[in-house]
Amino acid sequence: MDSTNGRDAPTDTLGTVTVSDQPAGPCLWFGKHKGIPLPDVPTDYLLWALATVKLSSGIWAAAVAELASRGIQPPLRRESPSACWRGPCHRCGDRQVNYRWHEYRNGVRQVRASCARCGQQLGHAPRTSPYTDEADRHASETPTLDVLLLAEQEGVKIVSDGQQVHCEPWGKASEKLKDLVRQCGHQLAGLLGDTRGKGC
Predict the structure, then answer these.
(1) Are 32 and 4 contacting, i.e. CB atoms less than 8 angstroms apart?
(2) What residue segments make up the domains of the chain, in order of their start?
(3) Fewer beta carbons under 10 A from the terminal one: N or C of the chain?
(4) What is the dihedral sign for C-alpha 76, 80, 86, 87?
């Protein structure tokens, strides 16, 4: 049992987190808080992980967003000229990168970088110009309404757990709908509440 959190992470017989019991949202994969959702990880441990552990861009951005939601200023990440969010795409080699807003389940937004050709996620760009300018330029002024209207047109169901929404089936949704969902996922979830299992 984790003495800090007072709870055990769900495990199978091999002592690893099971797929069916994995908590929603990003988790650390190491240390005494392995498998615990970031909102349940103590602030000092998140700060230590950001300062000392080589994290993926997704986990880094999620940890920064979580600290920001607590009013904590995270350490700066040194930028590399070859940072993945600058391109080129490691899947198809294309150099054109799209920058769009991505709203996390705690309401904090990051600039999501993706390949303009194949859609591969390339990490998160700094929340500074020109990346935020590009994200603003492509953002909808009425994203929640646009999600509901477009999902109905495409025959896609919008499911909410009260904190974040997703499309079912995700593969049927257009890239435009996926971008809109990422832009306002937390905001829309707050409007819809928990719709899981309601069949509507």
Answers:
(1) yes
(2) 1-78, 80-139, 140-200
(3) C
(4) negative
